[in-house]
From TrEMBL:
Keywords assigned by UniProt, alphabetized: DNA-binding
Name of the protein in question: MmcQ/YjbR family DNA-binding protein
Any Pfam family: YjbR
Keyword DNA-binding carried by entry: yes
Entry superkingdom: Bacteria
Length: 115
């Protein structure tokens, strides 16, 4: 997956916005103001995705490309290398999981506004 495909996939989800709150090089995707994905715009060597803690540990054990979240809460975030053998479909699945984790924590009103 390249950065354009990553960006398009994230932005296709309901209520997603993109921002650069950490500087011009870090592209951040949010739903209702809460981060679910981010990456370096210039390099796109990896992406940070929110993850259920148990699943995060499992993915790290199964895939060398998945590491504890770089500069993030390592219990809830994974950094996934985009340079390895992770398929686009698997990366999309993990993006979906990240989005759904954040979406599930929104209030009922916020969810209705996005749907």
């Amino acid at each position: 997956m390249n950065i354009e495909d990553f960006r398009d996939y994230c932005l296709a989800k309901p209520g997603v916005t993109e921002e650069t709150p950490f500087g011009d090089n870090t592209l951040v995707f949010k739903v209702a103001g809460k981060i679910f994905a981010l990456t370096d715009i210039n390099e796109f060597a990896s992406v940070n995705l929110k993850c259920d803690p148990d699943k995060a540990m499992e993915l790290r054990e199964l895939h060398d490309e998945v590491q504890p979240g770089y500069h993030m809460n390592k219990k809830h975030w994974n950094t996934v290398s985009t340079q390895g053998n992770i398929s686009d479909n698997l990366l999309r699945e993990w993006i979906d999981h990240s989005y759904e984790l954040v979406f599930s924590k929104l209030t009922r009103v916020q969810k209705l506004d996005l749907e």
